[in-house]
Amino acid sequence: MYITKEFNKICLLCRLCPIANFACRLSTTVMHRNKQFSGPNMKDYINFIRPLVHHKHDTNYKSFHFSLLSYNILAQELLEKNAFLYDWSDVRVLNWDYRRQLLLKEIKQFNADIICFQEVQESHLNWFFKKLSDLGYNGVYKKRTRFHCDGCAIYYRNDKFTLKEKVTVEYNQPGINVLDRDNVGIVLRLSPRKNEAENIIVSTTHILYNKKRHDIKLAQVHLLLAEIERVAYKGHKKVGDDNIPEYHPIILTGDFNLEPNTAVYDFLINGALFYSNLQKPTLWSQNNQSGRCNMGNELIPKSLGITEYSQHSDILELRKINNHKRQINDGLYSKLHHSERKNEQLLSTPSSEFKFGSGNVYHNLKFSSVYNNNNSCSTYHDQWTIVDYIFYTSTNLKLKAYMKLPNVAECQPILAMPNRVSPSDHLPLFAKFIYQIK
Q1: How buried is residue 334: exposed, middle or buried, by Cβ count under 10 Å (0-12/13-18/19+)?
Q2: N or C: which terminus of the chain has fewer CB atoms within 10 Å of its end residue's CB?
C-alpha cells in the first residue's frame, strides 16, 4: 500500500512539475489575447479557456429554450477514502465546508434550468435539497446500491418544468456476472409548464470506473438505453410497410468513464456495436498475440428481456397488442431487478421475432455529443482526458450554446483539482438547447 501511495505521488509530481514554467511561458500570450487575465489569477484563466460557444439557428418557429448543467461533484467520503489522489491539492480546499460553498457559487453562476449531478453523497442530501429548493429547484436522487455512500441526482426548475415520470435504474442484476456492480442511473420525463403536451427526457448516470472492464460498461449502457427507450417512446409512424418508432427529445448526461476512442462510446454515438469478436473484457480489437478470448454472442442473458436493440421485449409485445401506442405503467413489464420494488413479470416468453445474443447491440436514439472534440478534457485520469458527456437527440433538439472544455495544453496550468477555483476533480459541463414545439 505504501509503495502504491508513493508511486501515485510521483505520477502526480510528474504532472505538476511543468506547470509553473508552462504558466509563465503562457501568461504573456494569454494577457495579450485577453486583457482581463492578469498574473496568477486562476479563475480568470479558467474563464478564458472555457468560453461559451454559440450556434446560430433559425428561430422562426415556436420553440422552448432551456439550459443544462452536468457535474461530477466528488463525494466527500470518496475523496477521503482515496486521499492519496489529492495529495497535491491544498488541504484547505479539500474540506467539504469549503468545497460546498464553491459548488453553490458555481450553481448560482450557471443558473441552469436542469442540473445533473454524479457522486452526490447521501448524507449531504439535506443540504443540497435545502439550498437548491431555495433557488427554485425540485430534485430526484438515486443512491448506488448496497453499501455505497453516493449516487446520482437530477434537479429541475419548478417554475419551468413539471415532473411527469421518474425512473431509477440499478445496474446490479442478481446472478449476472457482467451486471454485478452497484452503479445507477436516473431517467426523468419533464414537461415545460407552458407546453405541457410536450415532453423532454433527461437522464444521468455514473458508469463503472474500472479501465479494463469495458464489457461491464457496455452492459450498463445497454440496460440504461432500454429504460430510456421505454420512457422516451411516443408511438410509431407508418413509413411504407414499416412502423418506425418516434421518441421525445432526449438528453443523456453523466460520468461515463469512457474516452471517445472506445467501443462503448462508438455504440452510443453510432447506434451499433458488433462486439462478438472483440477481446473480453476490454472490447479491444483482437490480434494473434493478445491471447484473450472473444466476447462471444451473449452480452447479457435473455432472461433480462432486453433485445439486441436495447428494448424490453415484453414492452414491445405490449405495444404490438395495443397498436404501437405508449402504455401507462409499462415499467411493470420490465424484467429488471430493482431493490425498491417487487417485479411484475406479466409476460414471460419473448416472441421469436426479437433478437437476443447475436453478438451485436443497437439502439434507435440517434445521439449527438455536445463535446465531440477528442482533445477536450474534463478530468485527470493519469493524464488529462474526457469521460464526462452530454448526449442529445439532434433530430428534435438544437444545440444553442455550450461551455467549451479545455484541450490538453490548456489544462497544464490548472492546479491539481480540487483547488481554490474548482471544488471537484471534474470540470462542469454546460449547454443550452432549443426544442421546436409543434
Answers
A1: buried
A2: N
What are the start-end ranges of the H helices in 111-246?
A: 125-134, 214-232
Contact between 118 and 100 under an 8 Å Cβ cutoff? The reply is no
The candidate with the shortest Cα–Cα distance to 310, out of 262, 249, 267, 276, is 267
Q: Long-range contacts for 344-347 (Cβ within 8 Å, ≥24 apart)?
A: 345/314, 346/314, 347/314, 347/317, 347/318
> Per the structure block, which three cell numbers stand in for 426?
471534474
What distance in Å separates the CA atoms of residue 322 and residue 319, rounded to the nearest whole number?
Answer: 5
* Model-wide pTM > 0.85: yes
Asked if residue 408 lies in contact with residue 22, where contact means CB atoms within 8 angstroms, the answer is no
237 within 8 A of 244, measured Cβ to Cβ? yes
| Separation CA 45–CA 26 (nearest Å) | 11
Are the CB atoms for 315 and 292 separated by under 8 Å?
Answer: no
Question: At 288, which amino acid appears?
Answer: N
Per-residue pLDDT in tens (0 to 9) along the chain, 438 residues? 444 444 444 444 444 443 433 343 343 333 333 333 333 588 999 999 999 999 988 777 789 999 999 999 999 999 999 999 999 888 999 999 999 999 999 999 999 999 999 999 999 999 999 999 999 999 999 999 999 999 999 999 999 999 999 999 999 999 999 999 999 999 999 999 999 999 999 999 999 999 999 999 999 999 999 999 999 999 998 888 787 899 999 999 999 999 999 999 999 999 999 999 999 999 998 875 566 799 999 999 999 999 999 999 999 999 989 988 898 888 888 999 999 876 554 445 555 567 787 889 999 999 999 998 778 999 998 899 999 999 999 999 999 999 999 999 999 999 899 999 999 999 999 999 999 887
Helix (H) or strand (E) holding 406: none
Compute the distance between CA of residue 370 and CA of residue 155 in angstroms, rounded to an integer. 20
| CA dihedral over 94, 100, 102, 103, signed as positive or negative | positive
Angle at 364 between CA 58 and CA 165, to 5 degrees: 80
Cell digits of residue 253: 448526461
